[in-house]
Amino acid sequence: xxxxxxxxxxAAGGGVSLAVAMSGCSTPIGSSLTGAQPSTAxxxxxxxxxxxxxxxxATMIETYRESSGTSVESSLLSWGNPFYTKLALxxxxxxxxxxxxxxxxxxxxxxxxxxxxxxxxxxxxxxITEDKFTPAAxxxxxxxxxxxxVPIDTHPFxxxxxxxxxEQAGLLENGTLRxxxxxxxxxxTLQAMxxxxxxxxxxVASITVDxxxxxxxxxxxxxxxxxxxxxxxxxxxxxxxxxxxxxxxxLQSLTGDLGLMPRTATSTTSSTLFSNGEVGxxxxxxxxxxxxxxxxxxxxxVVPFPALLGPxxxxxxxxxxLIVPASPGRPDERTASAVRFVQGLLDQSSTWADGGxxxxxxxxxxxxxxxxxxxxxxxxxAAFNAVYDPxxxxxxxxxDFQTAMGSVVASVLTGATDPAQGVDSMTNSLQTFSTARPPx
Amino acid sequence: MTATALPAPPxxxxxxxxxxxxxxxxxxxxxxxxxxxxxxxVLYLAFLIGPVVIGLLIxxxxxxTVRAGVGSWVGLSNYADVLTNADFxxxxxxxxxxxxxxxxxxVLLPLLFAVLVSRLARGQTFYRLAFFAPYxxxxxxxxxxxxxxxxxxxxxxxxxxxWFGLTAPDFFGSTSGAxxxxxxLTVWWTFGFNFILYTAAIQEISEExxxxxxxxxxxxxxxxxMITVPLLRPTIGLVLILxxxxxxxxxxxxxxxxxxxxxxxxxxxxxxIFDTGFSTYRGGYAAAATMVYFVVLVVVSVGWFxxxxxxxAANA
Lengths: 440, 316
What we know:
By secondary structure, chain A is an alpha+beta fold.
């Protein structure tokens, strides 16, 4: 060791780190220091799917990789608020992925903040055009006349029913649930289920510690009567008090006076009750279909909710979409690879539909293959009647807004708050959001 | 966050004393001093002073995390918004409540156990290790394990209540249950740090004092009461302030275990800052909230310093 002095060691170490720094421009570490987008693969893709959806997405990416010979680096990030934080920060600091999944309900803010590449032109050239998508989804992907996202699905809030129990209650017609026209029909159906089974409840929804589900149930009911609760990107509260009070009163009657649903139920309670046949109906999102498909001895089907308080049926929904985050330095060929990748995923929409989602891509949605798919093809209509979160800088999937609104709904459903008070607390809560200084 | 504070650097008084006795250092020595301090100063400027200055600056702008740059000038209106926001004050209260709930346990229990362990004839190293070990486990791991044990119906802790004929609180669904869950976790997890501080202080106490007490006929309990605890008073004071400051900084365990729920009823102020600054992109507003919170922490620290100075003066 005597020949290798400390001075030489330090010099050697310095040389190595300098060499790393010099060659660093092509490595992810180097590019993160120089502020460039990393280029470790032809397409860098972020998504937020775990579980069955994650497996389906992995299959789709693998199939695309093999058929196109393009390299795709796919990262799974945990879903919810942190995902959009990462996306916004990576994009505003100039290091975004090439393609990422986002909920359409989150697109308005991202678009307003100029974090998204307007994609319509490049996609139109590749044959990805408006006429090939579910109109409600395409419309939601469009902000101020510019389309910023390519929807891949619609995942509505729907009505699950236990086929055997519905049969027993005489609620089936031609093997499917007898159509309902309004809230009276709906209540009568639930009552018939309760009478026939003799169980304590007819239906269940996850209410406790699940503000998102409460919010979906509420917005679906309310949207049958009135328009969005906020406008102008969330800065103006446009609550229709009468409609909101009526919606609250109706929902509260289900858990209260009519005793058709439990007023406290966690997601575990609701899945246990429905899986064991202790209730005949479940109100939940289509993404739960894979969960119940695996329950032994449970035969169920899924249909859209009927029109409740308003004249037309409304489905609360959100959509997964593919977006290309803005990156001023992205070379044209990378953008082209991104477009081809998006197209490759759209073509495999039928694999994606396995997770319960309705494909937004009409060539697949109208294909024989999808029409055969049960129960997914039952509720395609819901994708067309979809109502999304109102556009706003604070709204959207997994947002604090949904937590705050859903908590008010939960307290109405448990009976702690009466409908008129519920309207007041929702108005108050919205006041905090709408008067805060918007980030865009 | 838990107590990660390092022992305080030598106070100004000591430094000036030495300078007075040693005389002014010569110029080259002075230069060498600065040179040796450079690595620390660079990091201190880059990661402490720098961010504080940037934070102060952007708290006066409508800075957002969705756009580059500082945004438009808004003056003090971010501060006005923060100070009148009920959610902010609710989260400040949650941080304070957490401090009130955890500090007594984390100051007194480690003292008790440190004294007990110090009186063991054998196996001291084992107990020190056993008590300190949880502290080195990362917060995410601790929270995942506890979340597992708190699970309704199937969790170990939930079932443990049943063994005594009690019904477990709803650890995730009710506010009181959530506080119970997070306090229990925190006490188990961060107990070791204060335990080690006490153990070190106990070892500092001279054996001769105990010998003298023994000769005077003091029993073990009298020794603890009349010698150990009084001689530990400065350490108890140190542990108390370190604990208050680190409890006020609580974030990880509440965020990971409860996400501030149910319905934000346990959300600490740091999570509020994180939620507004990152999740809802309002960087300038969150910076203003941080500054308000920073001022509160400074007031607590200065208050403690003044009280201690007065006590020291009274004792002298």
